[in-house]
Amino acid sequence: MRRIACLALAALATTACGDNAPTKEEIDDAKARVERLAASTHQVRGALEVLGLMPVYTCGEPRRSFLNQAVAGLSSTVGCATARVEALDDVTDAVVVSFPSGGCDVHGLRLTGRAVLEYRGGEDLMEMSADLREMAVDGQTLQAKVGYGTCADETRVFAEVEGQVPGREGHSFYINSRVGKREGLPLIGGTTLVFDGPGELTGPNGTDRVTLTSLLYEVGNYLPKEGTALVETADGHRLNLAFQPVLWRVGKVEVTVDEKDPVTVPVVR
């Protein structure tokens, strides 16, 4: 009987088959939660990619001069998007980036609608924030606040994003992410994104609390390449998710349910 149970588990995931192995029901539940989390963080990455369309402000440069050059550069590198600079007041300019109705593919994401990026200050301190409520990532509209602060010994990036979990009817997410800066890598606009922060996944059975730690995304990929996530479920369980390069290549993640033996499950987009 134990061998039959192990074979059934192996059809879904790679796992140890000792007395401490999770049940098939626990693996099924964990896999569904992992897929909802992956779909949600993919949307957060999409919001952050919008920031990457424009270079980070160069401290000491006049704000309007920087934006005019940045908009010209965006038009040449992302031909399907259009951008213009609008003066809002003496210390604030906005860049309005518009995408065609058929969508614009950027780093494996389809962007539609428009984004409004506001730049306030300049030279000594620049605060940039983006309103993404009029755009969609892969067909999903977002309630998103993303931006950064730089100069005056300050460098930070944030993304506060909420919306419906793509492909999972009745499920929504909220993630408040801080984007990390790794030495030698650009803050935004490079080939990787690293972010941390709390979040929530809400569905018919309640709300799971999520803590993301050092999730590293390679541009154009659906799953994070490395990092961890802790999911504290509405029904009192703890799922520890470990994203690893060797598993990332085959679309899998290691999951530990409570204190049981870890299992490796595939993530279906």
From TrEMBL:
Protein name per Swiss-Prot or TrEMBL: Lipoprotein
Entry keywords, A to Z: Signal
Signal sequence interval, chain numbering: 1-21
